[in-house]
Design brief:
With 399 residues, the chain is mainly β. It is built from five helices and 21 strands. It has a six-stranded mixed sheet.
Length: 399
């Protein structure tokens, strides 16, 4: 595993991601700047580190609201944590936040959700997170093998997106990926008190082994995409607009030398029963503000889970025209480059560390960034951190 000493700017960089209790990813545009020092806040009481749960050798596929039986790490997860100061409250926001950065990992024509056990069957994917993820990945294999490009191997979850091409027979690897988990605290009456007039669900943990796809539906291109998506820009060269709808608009408006980011929100409502579904989407849903003014899950998916906003950031270079490998599958005359972006997620967090960031950052409504767990500890930067992909370009024939 590649190692590098902690880079303080890297650890803090996600602190400027916006909050908000909704599922609209535009409320969390990522700006890579060092935040100002927070005003002093009363120190929250840290949640003690729990004992690791029993190890399950089989990884049962019979879910409860906790998901499958948790599998403890085959290493000491506390060795992957370092001390830090307690983060400030996220108030006046209504959600707790947990943020971290991932580096690009392997490129594979694999998809363990859509084509499990069928290597080479899918279009080319850019993976991040578990560096051993492939077509054969299961909850058990993810929990027991691999390092992680998301700071530390305590997050052996797998994330993947279609590979980006530059029109010259090359894959463009992202410089980094930002992940921002959020949810109202479990004590918030909007999600926990059945007598509350706004109640429409029950706050619950992110289930072990949960897997899903969000964004454009490549199994049925006629379906509406899930999760609001937009393209953004950041970098040293001035520009006048953000929030473009496709790569064509973004490339025209984001100057060469800056980064183009595609940002999309994962679902925040779960049916409480299934860790997957036939279309890999329908076991989850999105809350809506409707005309009532607060986020509410549908009655079919009443469990409110920590959702994440994902931003995948690519350097724009002169003379390149970008499209995702999945764009070739959309022959609609109204299709624009970037319209087919989608993402996959397979949850495989270390159960002890997962409990820490949910019980502290989320349930105490703290503003946690850079892998801060909200209890005086944060993830150790065990994977090399950089703001620039190296290599940035990979030959398509060699992928």
């Amino acid at each position: 595993m590649r190692r590098l000493g902690l880079v303080s700017a890297f650890a803090l960089a996600t602190a400027s991601c916006g909050g908000g209790g909704g599922s609209d990813s535009s409320s969390s545009a990522h700006t890579v700047v060092l935040p100002p020092a927070p005003a002093p806040a009363p120190a929250p009481t840290p949640t003690p580190t729990p004992a690791p749960p029993p190890t399950s050798s089989a990884g049962s596929e019979n879910p409860s609201t906790q998901g499958v039986v948790a599998i403890a790490s085959n290493f000491d997860p506390m060795s992957e944590l370092v001390s830090t100061s307690l983060p400030p409250s996220a108030a006046p926001d209504v959600v707790g936040a947990f943020r971290f950065i991932c580096m690009p990992g392997q490129l594979k024509k694999d998809d363990p959700i859509v084509f499990p056990g069928q290597p080479g069957r899918s279009h080319l994917h850019q993976f991040f997170g578990n560096d051993a993820a492939d077509a054969y990945s299961t909850y058990t294999s993810l929990r027991t093998t691999g390092n992680s490009t998301c700071m530390s191997r305590v997050n052996r979850s797998a994330y993947w997106v279609p590979a980006l091409l530059n029109g010259k027979g090359q894959v463009v690897r992202p410089d980094y990926v930002s992940i921002y988990y959020k949810r109202r605290p479990s004590s918030d009456p909007v999600v926990s008190d059945p007598t509350h007039p706004q109640y429409q669900g029950k706050a619950t943990t992110l289930p072990n082994g949960l897997r899903f796809i969000f964004g454009r539906d490549m199994l049925n291109l006629a379906d509406a995409p899930t999760g609001k998506m937009h393209f953004n820009c950041e970098g040293p060269v001035p520009f006048t607009r953000k929030d473009w709808q496709n790569f064509e608009e973004a490339q025209a408006g984001c100057p060469v030398g800056n980064r183009i980011g595609v940002q999309m929100s994962a679902p925040d409502c779960w049916d409480g029963k299934n860790l997957d579904s036939t279309d890999h989407r329908s076991h989850l849903s999105y809350g809506s503000y409707g005309n009532w003014g607060y986020l509410k899950c549908p009655t079919t998916h009443p469990f409110v889970i920590p959702a994440f906003v994902m931003g995948v950031w690519y350097t724009q270079a002169a003379g390149e025209t970008y499209e995702f490998v999945s764009d070739a599958m959309d022959t609609s005359p109204t299709h624009k480059r970037g319209d087919t972006f989608h993402a996959d997620f397979f949850m495989a967090w270390d159960p002890t560390v997962h409990n820490l960031w949910e019980k502290n950052c989320i349930d105490k409504m703290l503003n946690c960034s850079g892998g801060d767990l909200g209890n005086g500890q944060r993830l150790k930067q065990s994977w090399e951190a950089s703001w620039t992909a190296s290599p940035r370009l990979v030959g398509l024939s060699g992928s």
